[in-house]
Write a structure and sequence with these properties.
Layout (H helix, E strand, L loop, with lengths): L7 E10 L19 E9 L4 E4 L5 H7 L2 E2 L3 H7 L9 E3 L18 E5 H7 L7 H4 L4 H13 L2 E4 L2 E5 L2 E5 L8 E7 L2 E7 L5 H5 L10 H14 L6 E3 L4 H5 L11 E3 L8
Parallel strand pairs: 3-5, 5-6, 6-7, 11-12
Antiparallel strand pairs: 1-2, 1-4, 1-13, 2-3, 8-9, 9-10, 10-11
Length: 267
């Protein structure tokens, strides 16, 4: 029986992008239906320390890339009662534009990143436009500046940040993508981020088409299952079903935030 103190975990939606189902699976999909992406950041709230997972993108990037920003991620986090100026730790699952912008929001935070992700985002793979197009040069530069000012901590593979909170390199979507494993009142919840964009990607073993290594992505689905208490404890990175399956933490946050450390309302 574990004696770990459970964390609360929240998903906060800040944007949306309309897509067809065929665009969300390697090899396409026969169904000509809408299958939009929701954009999230996540908050892990502890008795002594809070952690933010990913930082989203801003309106400038959204306009250039044709995405819709519903609100700055800071607004949704503030609705949960979080003081961003007091956040000391930000976990970056990977450095794609929709996960590591808005660097100004957390002035007192150390960022946590896999070695492999920094090497990927600053190495020869970025000579290829099809890989580089999902990164923003300003975000990568900002991460390098964090390194040289002492506000970046690297991780290699698996690392425990706190009792009941650990980072796990998955790879696949990018070279150094990491998932976050969190102990909660309902067991081990895994924030998969883009190790699986949608429930359907991992359930049907049909990967999202933006990837670095197909084998690592497919193996990553198995890693997620091993890390989580059950399949229902895995939270995909962009699926609108997350907001449908989990309860809002308080009145007024419907469609904005849900609580992941309690069981889903429906599967």
């Amino acid at each position: 029986m574990t004696t770990l103190t459970p964390f609360e975990v929240y998903a906060v939606k800040y944007g949306v992008h309309e897509r067809k189902a065929a665009d969300n699976f390697l090899g396409g999909d026969p169904h000509d239906i809408s299958m939009p992406l929701d954009y999230f950041v996540w908050a892990i709230v502890g008795s002594e320390r809070n952690y933010i997972v990913d930082t989203g993108f801003d309106a400038t990037v959204a306009n250039r890339r044709g995405r819709a920003v519903l609100r700055c991620p800071s607004e949704g986090l503030a609705m949960l009662g979080l003081d961003l100026a007091r956040v000391r730790d930000v976990i970056i699952t990977h450095m794609h534009y929709d996960h590591c912008g808005n660097h100004h929001l957390f002035p007192e935070a150390t960022y946590h990143l896999q070695d492999a992700e920094m090497a990927y985002a600053t190495g020869r793979c970025m000579c290829h436009g099809v890989l580089a197009q999902t990164f923003e040069a300003d975000d990568v530069s900002a991460m390098v500046r964090r390194l040289f000012t002492g506000w970046l901590q690297f991780h290699d593979g698996v690392n425990e940040l706190a009792p009941g909170l650990s980072l796990h390199r998955i790879g696949g979507h990018t070279s150094g993508l990491q998932a976050v494993r969190v102990w909660t009142r309902r067991g081990w919840v895994v924030l998969a981020s883009d190790a699986s964009h949608f429930y359907a990607n991992m359930e049907q073993k049909r990967p999202f088409p933006i990837l670095y290594n197909l084998g690592d992505m497919l193996e990553g689905y198995e890693k997620l299952e091993r890390l989580a208490s059950s399949h229902q404890h895995i939270i995909p990175g962009h699926d609108p079903l997350v907001l449908k399956r989990y309860p809002s933490p308080m009145p007024g946050l419907e469609g904005i935030a849900v609580r992941l450390d309690v069981g889903p309302d429906r599967s």
